[in-house]
Amino acid sequence: MRKIDKSPETILSTKYKAWLDKLKASVGEHPADYRYYYDDVVMNLYRCQKGVCAYTERHLCTPALYDAANWVNGRPKIPDEADYNRKDHSGEMDHFDPEDKKGRYWNWDNLFMIDAAINGLKSNKRVIHYLMPGLPDYSPEKYFDFDPETGKFYPNTDIENPDTINEIEYMIKEVLYLNHPQIKHIRDNYHKMLKFLKKDGKPIIVDEFFTSVKWALGEE
Asked: Rounded to whole angstroms, how far apart are CA atoms 34 and 25?
């Protein structure tokens, strides 16, 4: 689960950002049922995440939908918008910390696009905040290791604190689902394909599972 840059400079949906800034300046709660900027947030998140699930890094959305050229006057204009619907990608918007939904529903820092099936499994479970992938000081190498033999993620073996190890294990298994059998199956096959291409001397283009590919094949 790699770090995701969600700094203000990455927000192309400036109409949404201006609206959010007004919400931050007010004392009221975010209107959870207000959906005017929903697609603005979704497409900007996909752009920050390069079209993959923020947690499992499985590919969810074609680049054509979140290309920077699609933003006009601070809002995304979806190509062939008349034919677009939310089934054209396979992700759902997730509140990393479900507690934020109660009063800060549209908090940019807490929002991520993730695999729809994983979102259903994660639901409103307790999270460990230091593993939020958008934090400035987050890095996968700090908390995780990946075993190319088993194809699984596990806590960084340099971590000595048993409480931290338990927290990371909990997040891997119960929140992030990094070793979910279906995700692991797809990831294993992806690694095999890339290894075959590399052995055959063919160019490799990595467009998903960035973190595991980096550790399994030494590819960025």
From this structure: 18
* Contact (CB, 8 A) for 218 and 146: no
The answer, as to whether pTM is greater than 0.85, is: yes
The closest alpha carbon to 150, from 172, 170, 176, 179, belongs to 179
Q: State the first-to-last Cα distance of the chain, in angstroms, to the nearest integer.
A: 14
128: number of Cβ within 10 Å: 16
Check residue 145 and report its DSSP letter: E
Cβ atoms 211, 145 nearer than 8 A: no
Block mean pLDDT (10 aa), the chain, length 220: 96 96 86 92 97 97 92 83 65 96 94 97 96 97 96 97 98 98 97 94 94 85
Helices (H) and strands (E) in the chain, counts: 8, 6
- Can you tell me the distance from the alpha carbon of 101 to that of 120, in angstroms, rounded to the nearest whole number? 16
With H, G, I as helix, E, B as strand and everything else as coil, classify residue 177.
Answer: coil
How is residue 16 written in tokens?
């949404």
Q: Which amino acid is at 120?
A: G
Report whether 55 contacts 134 (CB < 8 A). no
Widest CA span of the chain, in angstroms?
A: 60
Residue type, 149: E
- Can you give the residue ranges of every domain in the chain? 8-122, 140-217
